[in-house]
Structure formats: structure tokens, C-alpha cells
Design goal:
Helices cover about 85% and strands about 0% of the residues. The protein has about 220 residues and is an all-alpha fold. The protein has one domain (about 1-220). It is elongated, with a radius of gyration of 18 Å. It holds the Pfam family CcmB.
Length: about 220
């Protein structure tokens, strides 16, 4: 665990040294949310109706924007190969990579989502559910995205391939995440949807690091 903590600290320091990697998803999120009123019209009722789906779709695409870079830098400089050869458990090492990506992308977007929700006139009572669903769902997105990133890390232009590989697995998260927010908007209980997102996160935490480790070994050996 000490090695995992040091690896997490290293990834966060590298991310802070490249602020553009943190700013790009946030800027993308803000720009796309700002464009929807132009396309749908400025009517508050219309924006409020589509706000749960809009916010979740944009969050999904913002996560997809950063998925390809998860292991790319360490693969290019040889650090990833050394990590695979080290005696440390690959499971915890992979979790450190994914956790760092989630902290600078998914968690940050979730914490800033109330601002964007107000731009789309989302009901204030649904904002806590939005934040909670994004925190849970973005964790699943980061873990699943890590599998695609590991499979394509050896390819020079694997961004589009990552999207094709993992986008179908994003759909259940999108469905239940937006449904939770929609339920909160109409005053219905959202606990069932959040519980399903939590179950998805637990399953992804158990299985995704194993799949990522195997995919990294395949990609590096190839």
C-alpha cells in the first residue's frame, strides 16, 4: 500500500505539472453545456427537462477524452515496462493510476457539476443526487476506460479505437446515472438507481484492475 500511495502521489504531481490535462475536460464540459441552450432554445422548462441527460452525456464524453492518456506517457518513457517487472502487486498499481485519473477528471467534474446544473435550470433539489451519481458513475467510467487504454497503449493513434471499445460498456452507467437525476427532479426515490451505480462500481473495482493488468502485459509484450 505504501508503494501504491507513492505511485498515486507521483501521478497527481505529474497531472498538476500539466494543467492542460486537467483543464481540457473542464473546458470541454463547460463549452458543450453552454452550447445546448443555443440548440434547444433558452426556455427554462425545456432546459430543465433535458438537463439530467445533457449533464451525464457531457460527463461521459469528457471522461472519454482523457481515457487514452492514462498509460501513454509511462509507456513512451519505459516506466510502464519497469512497473510490470517490479515485484509489487499490479492490481494496486493499476488502481493508483485509475484513482489519479478519476480525481483530476471525474471527481472534479462531479464537484463542479452544480454550477453547470444551474446553467441548465436543473431543480436545486436534484443537485445532490447529480453529484452523488457522478461520483459513483465516473469511478466506473474511469475503471472501464482504463481497460480500453491498456489495450491500445501500444498503438500510436488509439484514441478512436478506445472509444469504439469502451463506449458500449458506458451505456448502462449513462442510463442509470441520468435516471437517478431524473427521478430526483420529479420527486421520486433515486436510491435504487444510486444503489445500482454503487454495485457497478464494486464490480468494476473487483474485476477491472485484473483486466487492465492483463491488457498491459499483452500490449507491452506485443
Amino acid at each position: 500500500m505504501a508503494f501504491c500511495a507513492r505511485l498515486l502521489r507521483r501521478q497527481l504531481v505529474l497531472a498538476l505539472r500539466r494543467p492542460v490535462d486537467i483543464g481540457n475536460p473542464l473546458l470541454f464540459f463547460a463549452m458543450v453545456v453552454a452550447l445546448f441552450p443555443l440548440g434547444l432554445g433558452p426556455a427554462p422548462g425545456t432546459l430543465a427537462t433535458f438537463a439530467p441527460g445533457i449533464l451525464w452525456i457531457v460527463a461521459l464524453l469528457a471522461n472519454l477524452l482523457t481515457a487514452d492518456n492514462l498509460f501513454r506517457g509511462d509507456f513512451d518513457d519505459g516506466s510502464l515496462e519497469q512497473l510490470l517487472l517490479s515485484p509489487q502487486p499490479l492490481y494496486t498499481s493499476v488502481l493508483a493510476y485509475v484513482l489519479s485519473q478519476w480525481l483530476v477528471t471525474g471527481a472534479l467534474l462531479a464537484l463542479l457539476s452544480p454550477l453547470f446544473a444551474l446553467m441548465l435550470n436543473l431543480a436545486p433539489g436534484a443537485i445532490p443526487t447529480l453529484v452523488c451519481s457522478l461520483l459513483l458513475g465516473s469511478g466506473v467510467l474511469s475503471l472501464v476506460g482504463g481497460i480500453g487504454a491498456a489495450l491500445t497503449v501500444g498503438l500510436r493513434r488509439g484514441g478512436m479505437l478506445v472509444a469504439l471499445l469502451i463506449l458500449p460498456f458506458y451505456m448502462p452507467v449513462l442510463i442509470f446515472g441520468s435516471a437517478a437525476v431524473q427521478a430526483a427532479v420529479i420527486g421520486a426515490p433515486a436510491g435504487a438507481h444510486l444503489a445500482i451505480l454503487g454495485a457497478m462500481l464494486c464490480l468494476a473495482l473487483a474485476l477491472a484492475p485484473l483486466a487492465i493488468g492483463a491488457a498491459l502485459r499483452i500490449s507491452v509484450d506485443a
